[in-house]
Amino acid sequence: MDMSRLRRVDAFSYTVPRGPEESRAEVLLYGSAPLLETMDDKVLEQIGNVARLPGLVGAAMTMPDAHWGYGFPIGGVAAFDAEQGGIVSAGGVGFDISCGIRCLRTDLTLKDAAPHFPKLADALFRAIPAGVGEEGELKLPVPELDRIMLEGAGWAVRQGYGSEDDLAFIEEHGRVDGADPTCVSDTAKKRQRGEMGTLGSGNHYLEVQVVERIYDVAAARAFGLSEGQIVISIHCGSRGLGHQIGTDYLVSLARAAGRLGIDLPDRELACAPIHSPEGRQYLGAMNAAINIALANRQILTGLTREVFADVLSGARLATLYDISHNTCKRERHLVGGQPRWLHVHRKGATRAFGPGHPALPEEYRNSGQPVIIGGSMGTGSWILAGTAESENRAWSSASHGAGRAMSRNAALKRWQGRELIRELADQGILIRARSLRGAAEEAPGAYKDVDLVAEATEKAGLARRVAQLRPKVCIKG
What we know:
This protein is an alpha+beta fold. It has a single domain (3-476), classed as tRNA-splicing ligase RtcB (Alpha-Beta Complex), CATH 3.90.1860. The chain contains 16 helices and 19 strands. It has helices at 33-38, 41-50, 110-113, 117-127, 142-151, 153-158, 164-167, 186-192, 217-223, 239-259, 277-311, 388-394, 408-414, 417-426, 436-441, 450-459; strands at residues 7-10, 13-15, 27-30, 56-67, 74-80, 87-89, 100-109, 205-214, 229-236, 271-273, 317-324, 326-335, 338-347, 349-351, 370-373, 381-386, 397-399, 430-433, 463-476. A hairpin with a 6-residue loop joins strand 4 and strand 5 (74-80). The longest helix has 35 residues, at 277-311.
């Protein structure tokens, strides 16, 4: 990124000055100078376009892990007021609706688990369907999928994939309101019939990790974390259904924008007013996909527990937290000191409520919401906690991952999947992947330094670091 185009606000936030004839809202980019320098200039163009959309409240923002995406940059955050003509944009949510991370803590230590890692890796690889178009054992008729779209993770719990205890530690208790299966196309439902309980491909994974270092002792205690402890992260979303909803509504929202005279700075920002028929239909479909994703991660949690019970008898796996990072949520935020309902788009960004927020489980009220920043399969991940400061700075939002530093095509030219898996095994990280090409595309070197992203997220006031995690076993599509 050309840093000469930016004006420094403070050490970890920058803005883009507006020209005298430029009509747009403020743009804010959070992150350190070295991280911003690695970003493509396309990020600036895209967030500048977001700042031109109607009904935007405050600034259009990017998180420290931002990179360019479809319409909105990945790592983009923008809030809109429905009562002031605010819009909803499929490009502001993304195709992988409600992609997110479920983190499970265990009562195992590295010393307990390490001798079993090879067997555990093989067993998880057999039990967890992963890969492009991969289906699981569940083959569900459309009426049952409609139920899941309304019931979310609760449906999976009632099918035996966990307990009610899990639901307390999932955003919205595992089910969002406003889902409308009638707004989801038959094509989307057909794509999903065999994909419940599957990981998918790309950057999705199931990873067995060790807590390497604690940064915030009090928050770690609240989250039930300690150094040397084994945790599991499950990263996936709404699979084919969510992707099809994104495809379907990019068309209908683009038509709505044209019909209503909305001047789109980029066709990929196809949008409609929240109160329009098209806006309401998209939100109904998107919320249905969120519930599908929450149920999907709950099913995968159940499958993971079964594997651990077979390989490490007596091991207990409890849900630490489950949070999405591709959504548009109706939330109450302070604007000029007054509470207002806003529709907050977070694309490749995680909600990060601070201490005391009523939506948090009682166990986390004093610490703030767990914020999970996923890394690449060779570098590690982070657990942070939301801060009160983040409410004012970014509508309680934070980074979601390391963020790509190079394209998948560029990664393929640089790495070979088989060699990469061998190198990681030499480092004590066992990879089980359906596709060697997919492994090469997701090479650790194709991503930004996740440790720098976590540090910048903290220093920008978006969330504070609690625990650093390192991978030991990774299941990929």
